[in-house]
Amino acid sequence: MQIQKIFENNKKWVENKLSEDEYYFKNLAKGQYPEVLFIGCSDSRVTAESLMGAVPGEIFVYRNIANMVSNLDVSAMSVINYAVLYLKVKHIIVAGHYECGGVKAAMESKDYGILNPWLRNIRDVYRLHRIELNNVENEQAKYNKLVELNVREQCINVLKIAAVQKVYRKGELKIHGWVWDIHTGKLIDLAIDFDSILTDIREIYHLD
Ligand code: CO
Predict the structure, then answer these.
(1) 25 and 38, same structural domain?
(2) Residue 83 shares a structural domain with residue 180
(3) CA of residue 83 to ligand 1 center, whole Å
(4) Residues 1 and 68 reside in one and the same domain
(5) 43 is catalytic
(6) Of 11, 141, 150, 196, which one has the greatest count of Cβ atoms within 10 A?
(7) Are residues 20 and 40 in the same domain?
């Protein structure tokens, strides 16, 4: 994609928006009130807003390689805390996707240099679920399973955050673990039972 083309596209988009509503950008500039925080992969094919049919102002977005929620990632922690405490979002979605390059890389015995610390978090997910994963013989099925288990573990990482626990227990916030099936374009809800997970992990992680 050429950079010049991006500016041409932008000009057309602005004209299109203004033809529908001359106050569109004036209203957009007044503030944001999204009810959803979407944590997804940086993958160029995972276009958060368009696959959800969302428009500007509806979704607070954070994306990184393999949709990770790392305790040491100041950016992720800032996004989540800001979304919960100030934007008061009602939903946090962690969405993985099949054919995720980050998850694939973590499954390989290979030195990825500066990427190693990041991929280590995914390898930790593999270790946590090693027995289940090693029982899957088909390599593609194992890869898909790790994508799903990684979503589950990143949702649990969201649940470990004090501000999240506080609003979650009051029933003001819901957490959702999804996988986007790149082969069909469809979103899959992993239907994770976070109430029982929180009960289970509170012995170790409870903060409020
Ligand atoms: Co990915």
Answers:
(1) no
(2) yes
(3) 23
(4) no
(5) yes
(6) 150
(7) no
Catalytic, 176? Answer no
Q: Is 100 a catalytic residue?
A: yes
pLDDT tens figures, 33-52: 999 999 999 999 999 999 99
Residue identified by tokens 């928006």 is: 17
pLDDT in tens, 108-162: 999 999 999 999 999 999 999 999 999 999 999 999 999 999 999 999 999 999 9
Residue pair 176/91 in contact (Cβ under 8 Å)? The answer is yes
Is the pLDDT at 100 greater than 90, yes or no?
yes
Query: Is it the case that residue 206 has pLDDT exceeding 90?
Result: no
- CATH number where 124 lies: 3.40.1050.10
| Predicted structure pTM score | 0.95
Catalytic residue among 97, 152, 155, 176: 97
Report which of 142, 140, 102 is spatially closest to residue 122, judged by C-alpha positions.
102
- What domain range includes position 129? 32-205
b/e for 112-138, b at 16 or more Cβ within 10 A?
eeeeeebbebbeebbeebeeebeeeee
Indicate if 155 belongs to the active site: no
* Tokens 């399973």 found at: 145
Q: How far is the CA of 60 from the centre of ligand 1 (A)?
A: 19
* Residue of 43, 152, 155, 176 marked catalytic: 43
